[in-house]
Amino acid sequence: xxxxxxxxxxxxxxxxxxxxxxxxxxxxxxxxxxxxxxxxxxxxxxxxxxxxxxxxxxxxxxxxxxxxxxxxxxxxxxxxxxxxxxxxxxxxxxxxxxxxxxxxxxxxxxxxxxxxxxxxxxxxxxxxxxxxxxxxxxxxxxxxxxxxxxxxxxxxxxxxxxxxxxxxxxxxxxxxxxxxxxxxxxxxxxxxxxxxxxxxxxxxxxxxxxxxxxxxxxxxxxxxxxxxxxxxxxxxxxxxxxxxxxxxxxxxxxxxxxxxxxxxxxxxxxxxxxxxxxxxxxxxxxxxxxxxxxxxxxxxxxxxxxxxxxxxxxxxxxxxxxxxxxxxxxxxxxxxxxxxxxxxxxxxxxxxxxxxxxxxxxxxxxxxxxxxxxxxxxxxxxxxxxxxxxxxxxxxxxxxxxxxxxxxxxxxxxxxxxxxxxxxxxxxxxxxxxxxxxxxxxxxxxxxxxxxxxxxxxx
Length: 459
Ligand SMILES: Cc1ncc(COP(=O)(O)O)c(C=O)c1O
What we know:
The protein is of the alpha/beta class. It folds into two domains: 32-65 and 346-458, Aspartate Aminotransferase, domain 1 (Alpha-Beta Complex), CATH 3.90.1150.10; 68-344, Type I PLP-dependent aspartate aminotransferase-like (Major domain) (Aspartate Aminotransferase, domain 2, 3-Layer(aba) Sandwich). Helices cover 42% and strands 16% of the residues. It has a seven-stranded mixed beta sheet, sandwiched between helices. Strand 7 (219-224), helix 11 and strand 8 (254-258) form a beta-alpha-beta unit. The longest helix has 25 residues, at 434-458.
């Protein structure tokens, strides 16, 4: 039964429109109002504590109370709260952040273009891809391929690459020029008896067939998350990116790594591209770039792209696009401080030291009768819930199996996310300790067994 709606909740219901929310249900139940945070924990306005098992939205790497990030913002607000990077202007934070980011960027990235969200970085990537191929005298080469269940933001163009039905249905997406290929999820999409390698070969063959069907002279780029996040936390099968990239190279199709979730240590390396042997032409990043403290993202490009953008901008008189808040000095100062903290505190070393424990505790869930697969890498993981483990059959949507686990976890003081396909996503702050990992999985185990009992009773 829902609790009575508080005055604060009533005001929210009256005036705030919430993304990814059932608006009718929201009027009945109201929002969970988060009021403060410390380390890996947040508190609601009733003073209930939660372990934030999703780091906000996969972003709060340094926890919810890092004083150095607050200080970096305050210092920059005092020095210069706003300036821009249009028309040959720059600021010290933009310059310092570009330099620092390029020190750690995946090879062979050489330049960073700053924006305010992952969606904007993806949108800029699309524009640059079209501008690039027009500059190369290839005006037909414009289609962009993403994977079904991939998540690449919500702009009209990026939302066309986000191939998840909820996010496209009745929004009149996808636009043409945006096409979709197979999901690289071995557990759900492999055939009986198929090895990971054979599955990867089949997906690479399908990609090649798609490119040939569309016409290689019309296909410009392929975009993928190294580990698919919001679509269900799917780690790629062995040899997948190696085989996919061989196809892309054959048909002169750009490889774009969407590192918005994986970037900055999530998979145990600085970039998911390193973990999975991806050699990208362009890379998007956001989220952990500023530990989520301020909105900032970057599109990073290699010289191969930059050289064409340079000649195009010369021809047209300027690179004809830009965002008022792209390269905002306060966001850049906070991002720079975040990168310094990663280095000084060896956050990557910490992730590597606790990840085996995280993955070990995660794997134990494989024994549950409602968990078809427990999977992950580094400090990201997921449980895929199923009704029948032998057939991989899922619960009907109305059973809301994933939502039930997330709600049971919340009631116990743990925030996790129910993703499409009854997948429970887990992506805690990178600073999480071994003891806090135990707390997270102990709470999740209670939530899963409670849901298991309810679902079995209902069956
Ligand atoms: C891989 C990936 N790309 C792009 C985006 C879009 O980022 P934003 O929500 O900042 O627009 C997200 C957001 O979760 C993401 O996970």
